Amino acid sequence: MKLIDTSIKKPVTVAVGVILVLLFGLISLFRIPIQLTPNVDLPEVSVETTWRGASPLEVEREIIDAQEEELKNLEGLVDLKSESQDGIGYINLKFEIGTDTDEALLRVSNKLDQVKEYPADVEKPLIKSGGRQENAIAWMVVSELDGYKGVLSQEYDYFDEHIKPRLERIPGVASVNIYGGLESEIQVVFDPDALASRNVTVPELVHALDVENRNISAGDFDEGK
Questions:
Q1: What is the mean pLDDT of the chain?
Q2: Residue 81, beta-bridge partner list
Q3: What global pTM score does this model have?
C-alpha cells in the first residue's frame, strides 16, 4: 500500500520513472545485438600429405588437385580449403552441423583411396579430426618427483606406447602430440683408422648395414589347423 500511496502523492516522479524505463527499453531494442543463430564450430577433418623435396607448385599439381577431385563430392561437405608448401600439402574440410566425426573420417579415407596415382616417393596421407590451425585445449607437463632415479628424457617410448593411446581413446579427443623426450634409436659409431687399415670405405660399411637390416617374406606354409 505504501508504494501505491507514494505513487499517488508523487505523480511527477512516477511519470519520470516510466519515461526512463521506456527510453532505456527503446535503446536496448535498437542497440543490443540479437543473435538468433549462435556461432557453432563445424566438424572438421584435415588431410596432410608429405612429398619431400617437392615445390609448392608440384605438390598442388600432383597431389592436392587429385585429392580435391575425389573429396569435393563428399556427403555433407560445407567447405574445402587447401594449402601447398615446400614438401607438404594440406586440405581442410568442414562438414554440416551434426556430422559424426568418425563417420566423416571414414568417408574421407575411402575417397582418398580412390586417388588413382601418387608420385613414387609420396608418403601416405595423414588424416585426423580437427582443423590444422586448431590449438591444443590442454597441456600436460611431466616432471620428476623426489626419488626418481631414471632419465625423464628417455621415457619417450613409454609415453608413446602406453599413455598416448589411452588419451586418444577418450571421447572427443581428436589427437595427442608428444613434445620433448628422445626416441630410441641405434647408433653406429665407427673408427676411421680401423676402417682404413682394413681398406673398407664408409659407403661399403653403410651398404653392409643396409643389407643386414632387411625383412623379406619367404612365402606361405600350412601348419595343422
A1: 84
A2: 92
A3: 0.54
